[in-house]
Amino acid sequence: MLYLLPAYLSENSPIDYFAPTIREIIMNVDHFFVENEKTARRVIKFFAPEKKQSELKLYLLDKYSETSDLKEAQDLMKSDVDFGLLSEAGLPCIGDPGNIMVKWSHQHNIKVVPVNGPSSFVLALVASGFNGQQFSFSGYLAIDKQEKKKQIQHLESLMQKTGFTQIFMETPYRNNQMLEDLIKYLQPNTQLCIAANINDPEHEFIKTKSAKDWSKSKPELHKIPAVFLIGK
Protein backbone atom coordinates (compact mmCIF):
# COMPACT_ATOMS: atom_id res chain seq x y z
CA MET A 1 0.00 0.00 0.00
CA LEU A 2 0.93 3.64 -0.39
CA TYR A 3 -0.30 5.65 2.60
CA LEU A 4 -0.74 9.40 2.01
CA LEU A 5 0.05 10.74 5.47
CA PRO A 6 -0.65 14.27 6.70
CA ALA A 7 2.02 16.43 8.31
CA TYR A 8 1.26 19.09 10.87
CA LEU A 9 0.86 22.69 9.70
CA SER A 10 2.51 23.92 12.90
CA GLU A 11 4.90 22.13 15.26
CA ASN A 12 2.72 23.54 18.05
CA SER A 13 -0.40 21.71 16.83
CA PRO A 14 -1.86 19.53 19.63
CA ILE A 15 -1.52 15.83 18.89
CA ASP A 16 -5.26 15.38 19.45
CA TYR A 17 -5.89 17.38 16.27
CA PHE A 18 -4.94 14.17 14.42
CA ALA A 19 -6.41 10.69 14.05
CA PRO A 20 -4.69 7.94 16.11
CA THR A 21 -4.40 5.83 12.94
CA ILE A 22 -1.52 8.05 11.75
CA ARG A 23 0.67 6.82 14.60
CA GLU A 24 -0.37 3.23 13.95
CA ILE A 25 0.60 3.44 10.29
CA ILE A 26 3.95 5.07 11.04
CA MET A 27 4.76 2.40 13.61
CA ASN A 28 4.13 -0.31 11.00
CA VAL A 29 5.84 1.33 8.01
CA ASP A 30 9.59 1.89 7.62
CA HIS A 31 9.74 3.20 4.04
CA PHE A 32 8.69 6.74 3.20
CA PHE A 33 8.72 9.15 0.28
CA VAL A 34 9.58 12.58 1.70
CA GLU A 35 9.87 16.09 0.34
CA ASN A 36 12.49 17.01 2.93
CA GLU A 37 14.32 14.45 5.10
CA LYS A 38 14.85 16.71 8.12
CA THR A 39 11.20 17.81 8.19
CA ALA A 40 9.98 14.25 7.68
CA ARG A 41 11.99 12.95 10.64
CA ARG A 42 10.48 15.66 12.87
CA VAL A 43 6.96 14.83 11.70
CA ILE A 44 7.47 11.10 12.27
CA LYS A 45 8.84 11.82 15.75
CA PHE A 46 5.84 14.06 16.48
CA PHE A 47 3.36 11.28 15.72
CA ALA A 48 5.39 8.30 16.96
CA PRO A 49 8.24 9.36 19.27
CA GLU A 50 9.05 5.73 20.05
CA LYS A 51 9.68 4.90 16.39
CA LYS A 52 13.38 4.20 15.91
CA GLN A 53 14.78 6.74 13.46
CA SER A 54 17.47 4.24 12.48
CA GLU A 55 14.74 2.00 11.04
CA LEU A 56 13.54 4.64 8.61
CA LYS A 57 14.32 4.35 4.92
CA LEU A 58 13.60 7.70 3.31
CA TYR A 59 13.39 8.36 -0.43
CA LEU A 60 13.58 11.98 -1.57
CA LEU A 61 10.59 13.03 -3.67
CA ASP A 62 10.81 16.76 -4.39
CA LYS A 63 9.96 19.07 -7.29
CA TYR A 64 13.03 17.90 -9.20
CA SER A 65 12.24 14.19 -8.89
CA GLU A 66 11.07 12.03 -11.76
CA THR A 67 9.47 8.63 -11.56
CA SER A 68 12.62 7.06 -13.01
CA ASP A 69 14.67 8.36 -10.05
CA LEU A 70 12.73 6.14 -7.65
CA LYS A 71 13.29 2.69 -9.18
CA GLU A 72 14.65 1.14 -5.96
CA ALA A 73 11.53 2.18 -4.08
CA GLN A 74 9.29 1.06 -6.91
CA ASP A 75 10.87 -2.40 -6.91
CA LEU A 76 10.22 -2.68 -3.18
CA MET A 77 6.59 -1.64 -3.64
CA LYS A 78 6.16 -4.28 -6.37
CA SER A 79 7.37 -6.84 -3.83
CA ASP A 80 4.60 -5.81 -1.41
CA VAL A 81 6.55 -3.40 0.82
CA ASP A 82 4.25 -0.70 2.23
CA PHE A 83 5.28 2.94 1.87
CA GLY A 84 4.17 6.21 3.41
CA LEU A 85 4.26 9.55 1.59
CA LEU A 86 4.84 12.77 3.55
CA SER A 87 4.64 16.38 2.46
CA GLU A 88 6.48 19.17 4.30
CA ALA A 89 3.15 20.41 5.66
CA GLY A 90 -0.49 19.38 5.46
CA LEU A 91 -1.78 16.80 3.03
CA PRO A 92 0.50 15.22 0.42
CA CYS A 93 0.05 15.98 -3.29
CA ILE A 94 -1.35 19.49 -2.74
CA GLY A 95 1.34 22.06 -3.48
CA ASP A 96 3.99 19.33 -3.64
CA PRO A 97 5.14 16.70 -6.17
CA GLY A 98 3.93 13.54 -4.41
CA ASN A 99 1.34 12.87 -7.10
CA ILE A 100 3.96 11.25 -9.38
CA MET A 101 4.19 8.22 -7.07
CA VAL A 102 0.42 8.14 -6.57
CA LYS A 103 -0.01 8.02 -10.36
CA TRP A 104 2.65 5.28 -10.61
CA SER A 105 0.90 3.29 -7.87
CA HIS A 106 -2.41 3.35 -9.73
CA GLN A 107 -0.65 2.20 -12.90
CA HIS A 108 0.86 -0.77 -11.05
CA ASN A 109 -2.21 -1.82 -9.06
CA ILE A 110 -0.83 -0.67 -5.72
CA LYS A 111 -3.53 0.47 -3.33
CA VAL A 112 -3.44 4.18 -2.43
CA VAL A 113 -4.76 5.04 1.04
CA PRO A 114 -5.35 8.74 1.83
CA VAL A 115 -5.35 9.47 5.57
CA ASN A 116 -7.33 12.36 7.05
CA GLY A 117 -5.39 15.45 8.05
CA PRO A 118 -5.22 19.24 7.74
CA SER A 119 -5.02 21.12 4.45
CA SER A 120 -3.94 24.73 4.88
CA PHE A 121 -5.91 26.09 1.93
CA VAL A 122 -9.11 24.28 2.94
CA LEU A 123 -8.88 25.52 6.54
CA ALA A 124 -8.14 29.03 5.26
CA LEU A 125 -11.15 28.87 2.94
CA VAL A 126 -13.65 27.79 5.58
CA ALA A 127 -12.39 30.51 7.95
CA SER A 128 -12.35 33.30 5.34
CA GLY A 129 -16.06 33.99 4.99
CA PHE A 130 -15.75 33.61 1.20
CA ASN A 131 -17.58 31.34 -1.22
CA GLY A 132 -16.75 27.76 -0.21
CA GLN A 133 -18.94 26.15 -2.88
CA GLN A 134 -16.93 27.45 -5.82
CA PHE A 135 -13.22 28.16 -5.54
CA SER A 136 -9.89 27.73 -7.29
CA PHE A 137 -6.48 26.93 -5.80
CA SER A 138 -3.58 28.29 -7.85
CA GLY A 139 -0.70 27.12 -5.66
CA TYR A 140 2.35 29.39 -5.84
CA LEU A 141 2.31 32.49 -8.03
CA ALA A 142 5.18 33.61 -10.27
CA ILE A 143 8.36 35.10 -8.81
CA ASP A 144 8.84 37.57 -11.67
CA LYS A 145 7.25 40.89 -10.65
CA GLN A 146 5.46 41.62 -13.91
CA GLU A 147 4.18 38.08 -14.25
CA LYS A 148 2.99 38.12 -10.65
CA LYS A 149 1.15 41.40 -11.26
CA LYS A 150 -0.65 39.87 -14.24
CA GLN A 151 -1.59 36.79 -12.21
CA ILE A 152 -2.94 38.82 -9.30
CA GLN A 153 -5.06 40.98 -11.58
CA HIS A 154 -6.25 37.93 -13.54
CA LEU A 155 -7.31 36.12 -10.35
CA GLU A 156 -9.12 39.25 -9.16
CA SER A 157 -10.92 39.49 -12.51
CA LEU A 158 -11.96 35.82 -12.33
CA MET A 159 -13.28 36.32 -8.80
CA GLN A 160 -15.31 39.35 -9.85
CA LYS A 161 -16.75 37.67 -12.97
CA THR A 162 -17.48 34.22 -11.54
CA GLY A 163 -17.73 34.67 -7.79
CA PHE A 164 -15.18 31.86 -7.34
CA THR A 165 -12.87 32.37 -4.37
CA GLN A 166 -9.24 32.52 -5.52
CA ILE A 167 -6.66 30.88 -3.25
CA PHE A 168 -2.87 30.96 -3.55
CA MET A 169 0.34 30.80 -1.53
CA GLU A 170 3.85 32.21 -1.38
CA THR A 171 7.19 30.98 -0.09
CA PRO A 172 7.19 32.22 3.54
CA TYR A 173 10.25 34.48 3.23
CA ARG A 174 8.48 36.36 0.40
CA ASN A 175 5.15 36.81 2.21
CA ASN A 176 5.66 40.46 3.11
CA GLN A 177 6.40 41.31 -0.51
CA MET A 178 3.33 39.34 -1.61
CA LEU A 179 1.16 41.41 0.71
CA GLU A 180 2.69 44.63 -0.65
CA ASP A 181 1.94 43.48 -4.20
CA LEU A 182 -1.63 42.53 -3.34
CA ILE A 183 -2.27 45.93 -1.77
CA LYS A 184 -0.71 47.63 -4.78
CA TYR A 185 -2.43 45.69 -7.56
CA LEU A 186 -5.84 44.76 -6.15
CA GLN A 187 -8.72 47.22 -6.30
CA PRO A 188 -9.12 49.01 -2.95
CA ASN A 189 -12.44 47.36 -2.09
CA THR A 190 -11.44 43.82 -3.05
CA GLN A 191 -11.69 41.54 -0.03
CA LEU A 192 -8.47 39.79 0.96
CA CYS A 193 -8.11 37.08 3.61
CA ILE A 194 -4.75 36.26 5.14
CA ALA A 195 -4.50 32.98 7.04
CA ALA A 196 -1.16 32.52 8.80
CA ASN A 197 0.21 30.03 11.33
CA ILE A 198 -2.83 27.83 10.81
CA ASN A 199 -3.36 25.25 13.59
CA ASP A 200 -0.94 27.04 15.93
CA PRO A 201 -3.05 27.59 19.09
CA GLU A 202 -1.03 30.63 20.19
CA HIS A 203 -0.07 32.36 16.95
CA GLU A 204 -2.80 31.53 14.45
CA PHE A 205 -3.89 34.62 12.51
CA ILE A 206 -6.89 34.61 10.13
CA LYS A 207 -8.44 37.89 9.06
CA THR A 208 -10.48 39.20 6.13
CA LYS A 209 -10.40 42.89 5.17
CA SER A 210 -10.37 45.05 2.04
CA ALA A 211 -7.07 45.69 0.30
CA LYS A 212 -7.42 49.33 1.33
CA ASP A 213 -7.80 48.40 5.00
CA TRP A 214 -4.83 46.03 4.85
CA SER A 215 -2.70 48.95 3.62
CA LYS A 216 -3.40 50.74 6.92
CA SER A 217 -2.33 47.84 9.12
CA LYS A 218 0.04 45.22 7.71
CA PRO A 219 0.81 42.08 9.71
CA GLU A 220 4.38 40.78 9.91
CA LEU A 221 4.40 37.64 7.75
CA HIS A 222 8.11 37.08 7.11
CA LYS A 223 8.94 33.36 7.26
CA ILE A 224 5.44 32.55 8.53
CA PRO A 225 3.42 29.93 6.61
CA ALA A 226 0.45 31.73 5.09
CA VAL A 227 -2.39 31.35 2.62
CA PHE A 228 -3.93 34.26 0.69
CA LEU A 229 -7.52 34.38 -0.58
CA ILE A 230 -9.50 36.95 -2.55
CA GLY A 231 -13.25 36.70 -2.71
CA LYS A 232 -16.66 38.16 -2.02
TrEMBL record:
Keywords: Cytoplasm, Methyltransferase, rRNA processing, S-adenosyl-L-methionine, Transferase. Residues 22-197 form the Tetrapyrrole methylase domain. The lineage of its organism: Bacteria, Pseudomonadati, Bacteroidota, Flavobacteriia, Flavobacteriales. GO terms for biological process: methylation; rRNA processing. Gene3D superfamilies: Cobalt-precorrin-4 Transmethylase, Domain 1, Methyltransferase, Cobalt-precorrin-4 Transmethylase, Domain 2. It comes from the Bacteria. PANTHER family: RIBOSOMAL RNA SMALL SUBUNIT METHYLTRANSFERASE I, SAM-DEPENDENT METHYLTRANSFERASE. This is 16S rRNA (Cytidine1402-2'-O)-methyltransferase. The keyword ATP-binding does not apply.
